[in-house]
Amino acid sequence: MSSSNRSFRILLTLAVLAVVSAAPAAAQGRGNNARARRAAPRVSIDLAVSAAREVLVAQGFEVVRVETKDDYKIVYYRRGNRGRGRGFGPPARMIIRRVEDRIVLDEAPEGIRLEISVKLGIRL
Q1: Contact assessment for residue 91 and residue 76, using Cβ atoms and an 8 Å cutoff
Q2: What's the predicted TM-score (pTM) here?
Q3: I need a labelling partner for 40 at 20 to 30 A (CA). Which of 33, 34, 53, 103 fits?
């Protein structure tokens, strides 16, 4: 066997390996994933109020009252006693309203807003 014939076989083998190894890389797209196409869940204002109540209580707040205005709800809350005998914190409020087909939380601290959105499974 001559050296030119041997080098030709090596080059041919390398070319075939390069083509075969590059073929799966072309199929690495997003695909037809049903999870990626799934729409954001539709959340009612009442469900958002109940999630806000759960999150506030879990973080040590006390829900004072919930008022219904036109097409939004206002949740009044305050810091709990925390067992230290220093009374309750000043009242604060959070406005929960619907804009088009999503829920918006106004005047809520960022940590509470984030935890409510995680609980509801939505992006705010």
Answers
A1: yes
A2: 0.65
A3: 53
The mean of the pLDDT values for the chain is 82
**Is the C-alpha dihedral spanning 109, 110, 113, 115 positive or negative?**
negative
- Summarised one tens digit per residue, pLDDT across range 64-82 is 999 999 899 999 999 987 7
Nearest to 101 by CA among 116, 119, 118, 123: 123
Residue pointed to by tokens 């807003």? 113
Contacts of 96 (CB under 8 A, 6+ apart): 45, 48, 49, 52, 72, 73, 74, 75, 103, 104, 105, 106
- Structure tokens that stand for 6 in this block: 């041997």
Cα distance between residue 5 and residue 91, in whole Å: 88
